[in-house]
Amino acid sequence: MKFSVLASGSTGNSLFIETEQTRILVDVGLSGKQLENRLQQIGVDASTISAIFVSHEHIDHVRGLGVMSRRYQIPIYMNEATWSNLPTSVGQIPEEVQNIFETGASLDFHDIHIESIPISHDAAEPMGFFFGQGEERLAICTDLGYVNQRIVDQVTGVDTLIWESNHDVEMLRMGAYPWNVKRRILSDVGHLSNEDSGAALTEIVKGIGEHIYLAHLSKDNNISELAHLTVKNILEETGMKVGRDVHLWATYDDRPTPLKKVKLKN
């Protein structure tokens, strides 16, 4: 498997995964034109996408869904609650591309095994995803209010993990957001702070060379270097050596990460 985080953040989210037989997008939170451009940057034609899997209905995850479905007739998979709560701005999605993939279910799609992971967020029924092919394993969990044991169990020891590190708590508390928005972000249906992200990773990371991509960073309440340093310090307090036992990577809202193999031990 190979992958690229095409976009990550409050302005839009999308992940690309490919194998020898299939090409998948997880979320399409950019415009159709932007998605096509990001895919072109990693050498992929949008018309070759085999399926789109949707984590939840917020616009930063589905902005391009209607355009992509109508333009390329790409099969789309999401749970029934998400289908029922899509924003009207997505527009009409052809019935023939609509597929139900319920939370907690698994699916063998061409040569890749996919599992959906229940998560906590202020959406109808949000979920993360696990992808496996042979010994290669990738998971994505963002928009996390908190991390429970089921999430830990499903993503522990994966080769590559796209993982939320949304905000610095003090930056959020001192920032300009209204208090009701701050309270939502800090709640169990909000987003994972840098500190909570690092703490959860101490239970997930086994020190076998995993690659962790810190994702969905707040533009107003976080800094990439701060997220990296906070998570690094927490991991290294447990005796883990970042850069040897585990690797931390940034994601971006304005460009894709390089297309890489999922199983990369250095």
From TrEMBL:
Q: Which residues form a coiled coil?
A: none
Which superkingdom heads the taxonomic lineage of this protein's source?
Bacteria
Q: Which InterPro entries match?
A: Metallo-B-lactamas, RibonucZ/Hydroxyglut_hydro, WalJ/YycJ-like
Annotated Metallo-beta-lactamase domain ranges read 11-189
Name of this chain's protein: Phosphoribosyl 1,2-cyclic phosphodiesterase
Q: Where does this protein come from, organism-wise?
A: Hazenella coriacea
What are the top taxonomic ranks of the organism? Bacteria, Bacillati, Bacillota, Bacilli, Bacillales
